[in-house]
Amino acid sequence: MTAGQKPEISIVTRAYNVESYIQECADSVLGQSFSNFEWIVLDNGSTDRTGELLNDYAQRDARIRLFVNKKNYNKIDSCKEYYSYVDLLQKTRGRYITDLDSDDMLHQDFLKILYQAALEQNADIAAAGSIQFRNNNIKDIAQKILPKAFCDKDITQMGKDINDFYDAFRPVWGKLIARNLYLDNLDYFFKRPCQLTFGGDTYTMLRLLQLAESCVCVERPLYYYRVRRNSITWNNYYQKRYQSYDVIFYEGFRLLQKWDQMSPENLEQLCLYHLGGIFSDISVIYYIQGISMAKKAGMIEELFLDQIYRDYIVNFTGEFQRQWDEKLFAILNEIWQRCKEKEERFLFYPYHYSRRYLARKMLAENSADLYDIMCYVAASVSARNEIRYEDELLKACVSYLTGKPCASWKEAEIFIQQCTIAEGREEEKKKKLNQYISENCYSKVQELLQTFNKEMDWDCDVLFTKACYHCAAGETETAIKILAVAQELYPQERVIEENLKNLCGMEKRS
Q1: Domain ranges of the chain
Q2: If you average pLDDT over each of 29-38, 299-308, 371-380, which comes out highest?
Q3: Are strands 125-134 and 137-145 parallel, antiparallel or unpaired?
Q4: How many Å apart are CA 350 and CA 120, to the nearest integer?
Q5: Within the chain, what is the greatest distance between any pair of CA atoms?
Q6: Global pTM exceeds 0.85
Q7: Which CATH architecture has domain 1-104?
């Protein structure tokens, strides 16, 4: 680019404490075979040598426009004291804008190939593929993502198969985006739902695709993305990050509707992308440092209460549900192993999915008692569990409890329903049980419990009384298991939930 010449492309980068990587990034920019560009780069309050290195480059190349924040500022909204991302976009002068992360690199022909493709099709967006590599070794490829080649002026045709484009359009980087498309719709892009704390790039691209009229995709990896465990994405975990996946799911849903490409296959695949996000979250929760195992179990529980997850998981085949179940149990098993090391095993019992895993684990190890078996059955057919496939273990457990063959998941559900119909019976005896407990007369409690018919074994009051009895006898683990069963059978009983959590906390402290 010569002096006074207007750049055709504006590269936008925000850099924060990347002294180990910024030189590779800068060299990849300045080594582009297409030269008519400007690089708008922000030193976003770096405390290492990032700013110094960028300043050296800016002194040597007039195409670099360097801006500096005294402190790190990552909000989208403009601020008088700091440059925001929107501020940088508004300072661009190119016909096209492309984002570049400060620890990533561009193929030397990135700008040239995408610019030519965009001009030939007069496209609003030109996208390339990417190579994700680990840390400092560009040959250590973690993943290669390529969009399917596309050059139709009707952008809606790209949506015939969501797999052809979705992965490549999750990030903003790796693309040329028409400046007028971007800047004319800033309000639309950045008036984001408050739940969106993660996946802002995907949200933005899905919105851009809804507005764009034309797009061209180059089936070549031209962007090099560095995967770092210590990057912002890996280090910052928001407890309700799954809500961001909900926002993105609905944005993808709206895109397919707008393109008139809402086929059953596309909807199922969109659900799978959402499911992948949830599984990713579970994996991230496992690796988070500095929080208790109880907190992790609670965070996982909250993930599975996500409404989108519950709405669509039931539509997948039984075999798919079984495979998904195995994945979940594998992650929970890793957390369980750490729990055993930290003597936090009891913290699994207050949570539905964790206790279902635990009951199955006890069964697999031939160390299960009657309450483990019942807990697995009750948790499996619970309304909170949307994973319902023909589980041979479930049928075996029901057969053990009833002494009769169990042929299906439905029969297991009927068995659980029958276990709870005793509610409201033997009221006089139950009043006496409460009296004996209040008087700490546990020998009388034991005697009276033995007078109940077998059909009362799983009555809520009887279970609660048994838990109190075992707790008084110092058999806390048995008491916890009984309360776990009671909570599965009678989830509306808050007193069960409160006592279970209190008892698990007491066991942890003992």
Answers
A1: 1-104, 107-241+251-259, 290-419, 427-509
A2: 29-38
A3: antiparallel
A4: 61
A5: 97
A6: no
A7: Alpha-Beta Complex (3.90)
